[in-house]
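Case study B.
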Amino acid sequence: MTKAEIVELIYERVGFSKKESSELVETVFDSIKEALVSGEQVKFSGFGNFLVREKNARKGRNPQTGEEIQLEARRVLTFKPSLVLKNELNEKDVSAS
Amino acid sequence: MTKSDLIERVAERLSHVSKKDTEIVVNTIFDGMTEALKSGERIEIRGFGSFQVKVREAREGRNPKTGEEVKIPAKLTPFFKVGKELKERIDAAWRRERAADVSAGREGVGRPAGN
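Model:
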């Protein structure tokens, strides 16, 4: 599924024009991105939480060469899926087996 | 930011779309993404990231209370991989904040913003 397919979905299910659907989908993802860039946690109940985490500097190793390297402090994005989503993904397995 | 915050922010930006309609759109996006993942489809939102369902293999576990051995069945789990552009923006914004704090002599961690 791509962004274009999500736009198509809005067009079909909600009834906005293609142009409006595209504008809406872009604005939704832009707003999420801006919140994350500003360091906000983004929590969607029933789907999952996007968490911005600060990582301390640490010594690492190049797994290929074994060479020691210094990893800088950085800020990263992680996703923790909600229990609801995880359960939904496993529902069909139960009926299929 | 929660889903209702998102709905409010989007509705504020698009003055011609009502909050009610924005809510329907946001819910449809998440429903659609959940359906895609349920059907095993990968989702790729350019500039944001991608979602993919992977199999967590079955394994032997132990009930931490009783010490009893239990079989943990294989499970499907969604994984998110942040897109390159967003990954860089999230890190860069933080580095800029820290650099500004250092030059302003506000190096302490956890200091509330705004003075």
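Confidence is low (pLDDT under 50) at residues 93-97 of chain A. The remaining cases will be described in the next quarterly update.
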